[in-house]
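Side project, low priority. Logging it here so it doesn't get lost.
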Amino acid sequence: MYNSKIIGLGKYLPDNVVTNADLEKIMETSDAWIQERTGIQERRHIAKDSDDSTSSMGVKASKIAIERAGLLPQDIDLILFATLSPDYYFPGSGVLVQEVLEIPDCPAMDIRMQCSGFVYAVATADQFIKTGMYKNVLVIGSEYHSGGLDMTTRGRNISVIFGDGAGAVVMTRAENNEVGVLNSQLHSEGKYAKELSLIGPNTGRWVPEIMEANDPDDISYYPYMNGQFVFKNAVVRFSEVILAGLQKAGWKPEDIDMLIPHQANLRISQFVQKKFGLSDAQVYNNIQRYGNTTAASIPIALTEACEEGKIKEGSRVVLAAFGSGFTWGSVSIQW
């Protein structure tokens, strides 16, 4: 049994910066209102004249990660692409990345676990590497939210939160089983599936039916979130799954060198930080600059933390996420 470890990281953010002041011009909101509730100051949106897409952002992040890993695209044995905003209804975005990177015949799998997508994908890669089935796995988190948001006052509770971007890591076998991914904790609770969801179009209500109805008040094709309910569940599940991972690894909260939570809401991160008695130096947050990029948020933050020297050889790193499904999970890594 092999441990898996991360050997290359990369990120990509669109150039187009959308500030809270920009949103004030198109909906009834304010910088103070947004920051008080979410901590977000700005986010990146793909510009209307840009060629960026979910898969192309994933490609750009992947190229950096593969190069930093000291590998070639041809060395990749498996692609795992975490997203809730694929380029197409089908096929998935993983095969589109494979085509552009010219990776030869290898499996490419999309992971549809929304905000928990990257954690689930890392856990999946870890299991494939542990069994010896694959050696080098490319794990991508990428999201293109902005084109599907209700950018009016009606949709402001959600639309001010989300941004676009991508992050990627390359995982491989660790010769020393005392380093790398030590454990992963994955959970879901389907009874709350509709509390954070995008219901239509779907196979119960296809596009022709929606077009025929032509109802301007139909908002089922925009994301829905029961904000307070999601927040209350998130702080509980974040705490539980982080603690479970720490116990499995034989760590205490004070042993954490870097906690990288999914960037859902700065208030959630601050609540968890306070609960575990962690300092600002032990928690990485970048939601202030990028908003919530769902499956991309952890790999973007992980890449930045490494680039800034906040994660080094020997660091004890915890990744944690909670989101739609409800799903949640954590990964404990000895860097």
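Brief comment: The mean pLDDT is 96.
Revisit when time allows.
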